[in-house]
Amino acid sequence: MVAGFALDLDHLLATPMFDPNRCSINFHPLHTYWAIGIYALLLWPARTRVWAIGFLVHMVLDYLECLPLGVYLP
User: Which residues fall within 8 angstroms of residue 40, CB to CB, at 6 or more apart?
Assistant: First the structure.
């Protein structure tokens, strides 16, 4: 689960690094829909399942942060 925090390293690429009014889903490279799809595929191999769960939990929590901003993703 701690590996899910590694996904926030892509926030270092953004300018400004932290913007409280920005939804990180589909903004940062490791938070795109394509990346989320890869994280879902990582659920199948037993060796990567724990990593995938950590990544997907991270994405759900980031999505929940978007809701108060009025950003409703498909």
Answer: 52, 56
